[in-house]
Please model this.
Amino acid sequence: MFAFVTVGASMSFGLRDIASQRYHDDSRTELLTIAKLLSTEVDVKQHETLVKPEQMNSEVYKSQIAKLALAKAQLTDVRFVYTMRPTKKGLTIVLDPTPPGDADRDGVEDKSNLMDPYVEATPTMWRVLRTGVPEAETEIAHDKWGDFLSGYAPLVNNNGRVVGLIGVDRKADVIVAHLALLDRATLWSLILVVLVGALASTIAVHQVAHREGAQTSSWLIRALHRVRAGVLQTILFVIAFSVFAVGGFAYRSQRSLESDYRHSLNRSSRLERLDNSLARLDDPSADAVAKQSTLELAHATGVGQGLQSLTLPSSILNLATSVAGEIRQEDRRGTLLQSDIDACSNRVEVAFIAALLLSALSLVLVRGASRQEQQRIDAESLAVRNERAYSAIAENLPIGFFTYSGAQIGYANRAGRELFGCTETDATFESIVSRIHPDDWTELSLLIGDAEQRRIGYQSTYRVVAVDGTVRHCETHGVPVLDTDGNLEHMLGFVLDITQRVVAQQEAAQRHREVKESNGLLSQAVLDLEDNFDAMVDSLVKVVEAKDPYTAGHSERVMVYSLRIGKRMGIPSADLKILQMGTLIHDIGKICIPDEILTKPSGLSPEEFRIVRLHPQMGAQIIGEIPAFAECLPIVLHHHERLDGSGYPDQLQGDQISTLVRIAAVADCFDAMTSDRAYRVSLTAEQALNELRKDAERGTLDPKIVAHFADVIECDGVLWKPIAVAA
Model:
């Protein structure tokens, strides 16, 4: 327990400090980024023309304010946005999009007007104006509007001169709340560490006592062993809590001293600003407004409480003397606080260094190494299983699929090898190129080389000459596969045998005079096929849509509809995963359906409809040997089954149809009805829902699922517009 509690406490405190500092740095970086972005919204040329309070009613002022107000409305946790310019009397406010009034009810008007003096300018503000480099405050600053962490960016005119700055203030309450959340998380982690450590030490001590006590049968000896175990446990608890108490008390003292030190720095900064403001009052041009603002700053800083005005030089001198004394006193206090902080830090290090060296190396390194090794083994095992599953999918695809880089073929699946007349052992780049028609290879090689060099996709058509001399027409698509650094790993290619389509085009050109119109329709079909092919890269299951342009996007929509139904019904996450995979590949069996049937522009004959109805069984055969798809096999096989037994292929009824299959059936029917076909137009969402309700009343679909789906459509609407294909 000693090692457990010590390491846990050390890590908790250390991580808290790291997280606190990281949050502070991130807040400053975020404020700097916001300030730099907002500086681009300010027209510096117009900004320079705003020099009189009367210009607040001008169009220039209103347009500038409107742009800053619009930008500020889109920011969260930002309290004030403003611009300032330097004058002989100090900094003055130019733009402040804050609405008039006292929204936070602190007794101070929120909005600053044009040319209002700002007497609490910080050294950071002047440094930004002097160097032209954006900068954020390192600590929370205070002015009459409250406590803020601020970031500033310069406003530079066309001549490259810094003429002002833009500031962004975040309320300190936001930062304090976040740090309080970190403190609570640290406390709970310490409590958990102590409890787990106590449990572990108790078990260990009792096991030792049990093993030693089991060697003797004397009840007196066993009692002594139990007493010794309790004493050992007590000693361990005392040591652990002693170290923890010393380190924790020192740490809490350090945190308290650091808070006091920050307050001291903040007050020193305010005193320095007050001193600078008093120095500017020596200028004869200092007006009453500047003197009143300086007096307000003095009262807010806790100096010159008895002063009512600064009209007399003697009052200014007396106040300056008091401020100088306060600055010296605050500097001495800061030095003492820093010394105490260093002492507390040393006590924390002494309390934990020995335990960290002895226990952290043995506990963290050994346990961490074993955990990492186990994670590596599990990751490798998962990678092997996934690779086998994906390889099985790729090998069984009915289209050519291959990877290549340069002039080297990495992989070619069965359909690709058969198309080019190769075996698994001789599927080389040269053997494939030798089958491409010579008249097509020159242009194709330039296209492939350019795509690989530029890391872009490509598509083309060419002819393949088989061993027996027959010519096959092919369509190919390729996409680059990049690693995490954006470098090209290899190209991924797909090849479709489109000989039947090409021959049909040629015959149609000879038989019909409207060849131009037919070619236009065919070009549109090719574009639809290309879109489906691009989607195939994201999911190999999409290959079925490359054969049937009428169902483009159908699987994705059915998946999204099904998941929304499942979530509304409270389906467990594991079943939602099965539902997602099953609906994505539910129509994969259509790969085996001839193109002329899938794309037939008129009604199907009975024989053709019988063939189409085979696609669930064909899909089940495709994925049946792949273990990764075992759980979603019922969705692929039974998504056309109906509760009354009128579906296919097995005419299942009632409870024989699982909930997941029922959900997929409702989503599939809805998307089919709201999608255009060559032989009919799509129904509206309301019409389709009415048809689903009628089917539920007839007993073919689950009425509860239909009702849930109607709620989904009412809340989320219909997904993207179904693809319309001309007849």
In short: Residues 211-217, 722-727 have pLDDT under 50 and may be disordered. The longest strand covers residues 471-482. The chain is about 60% helix and 10% strand. The two ends are 77 Å apart (CA to CA).
